[in-house]
């Protein structure tokens, strides 16, 4: 019997794939480097979240939060970006698949993209507002416990088995103008917006049957021989991917039916 899951995802590589050897948890930089917890007040948390989002590189090792995403599509793009632009080897890049339910019950999640929460308003007028929208960022406070980790997807498996509407090796030319000399530079990998736009067009152009078939093929690849991914988790990943590729409009037809049929696919 399929059990619907609320999933989150986290991209890790050789620099960040470092769980605590004692309990298997992924701990925030602050927890790893300090024995004293930060002030647990609204203002202190607001300051920590703003610093975490606006300066992730310089803030690494100091933040009480860990970044995750509610979008598997964004994580596929981010994994590819790390391989193409950051010199990471594909087999060293993984997407952790997390069960959001226990983290939600424990009050550990900060859904930055939630329109009913105050977080997005803190970044109005900045580039980080768009970042939050694109990445569907969800912060986990202090640590990701091992019992919330359902599995992981290696980027090599995505390269080999990516759905037809996500041609993983397709390159995008993304020209940006830098300041102050206004010199144009070419980004080899391309922006998430370019990738997302291409994927959504391909997804829309495909027939229902084609999208269903490629998603089920993706599920079969994730749960094939030599993998440890539970099938219901793989189905939930495919359902999340369908939601992202349909523009995230919950309840639309036939996308809602597609997500439900993928999630409830009988074997």
TrEMBL record:
Highest taxon, organism lineage: Eukaryota
Pfam entry (one): DUF7587
Location of the DUF7587 domain: 5-157
Name of this protein: DUF7587 domain-containing protein
Organism: Cylindrobasidium torrendii FP15055 ss-10
């Amino acid at each position: 019997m399929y059990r619907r899951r609320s999933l989150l995802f986290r991209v890790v590589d050789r620099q960040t794939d470092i769980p605590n050897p004692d309990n298997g948890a992924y701990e925030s930089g602050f927890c790893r480097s300090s024995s004293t917890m930060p002030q647990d007040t609204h203002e202190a948390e607001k300051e920590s979240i703003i610093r975490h989002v606006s300066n992730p590189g310089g803030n690494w090792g100091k933040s009480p939060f860990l970044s995750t995403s509610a979008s598997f599509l964004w994580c596929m793009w981010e994994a590819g970006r790390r391989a193409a632009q950051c010199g990471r080897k594909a087999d060293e890049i993984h997407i952790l698949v997390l069960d959001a339910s226990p983290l939600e019950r424990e009050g550990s999640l900060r859904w930055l993209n939630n329109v009913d929460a105050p977080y997005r308003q803190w970044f109005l007028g900045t580039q980080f507002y768009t970042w939050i929208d694109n990445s569907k960022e969800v912060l986990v406070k202090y640590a990701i416990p091992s019992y919330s980790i359902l599995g992981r997807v290696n980027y090599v498996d995505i390269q080999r088995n990516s759905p037809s509407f996500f041609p993983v090796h397709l390159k995008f030319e993304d020209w940006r103008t830098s300041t102050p000399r206004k010199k144009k530079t070419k980004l080899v990998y391309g922006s998430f917006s370019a990738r997302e736009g291409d994927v959504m067009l391909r997804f829309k152009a495909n027939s229902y049957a084609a999208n269903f078939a490629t998603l089920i093929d993706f599920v079969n690849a994730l749960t094939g021989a030599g993998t440890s991914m539970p099938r219901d988790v793989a189905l939930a990943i495919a359902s999340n991917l369908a939601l992202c590729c349909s523009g995230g409009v919950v309840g639309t037809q036939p996308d809602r039916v597609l997500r439900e049929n993928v999630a409830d696919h009988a074997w």
